[in-house]
From TrEMBL:
Protein name from the UniProt record: ParD-like antitoxin of type II toxin-antitoxin system
Species per Swiss-Prot/TrEMBL record: Pelagerythrobacter marensis
InterPro entries linked: ParD-like
Amino acid sequence: MGLVKIDEALHEQIRAASAVMCRSINAQAEFWMKIGRLAEANPTLSFNDIVRQQLAAAGENGDDDRDDDDSRLVA
């Protein structure tokens, strides 16, 4: 595990979001970094598309009628 230095204002935004989302500050930062990385690699997908596809990949949504071509994210 490494340390990442971030701007104090961003840290406060993470702290606020983590409280609302019931995540630790680290978990919230990791979530934003993962979603940001996936969004950069898949610029045509919305946030909701990315989250839905991550849930499907984890076997959490049980939706079997999704288009397989749409279900793959570039990592």
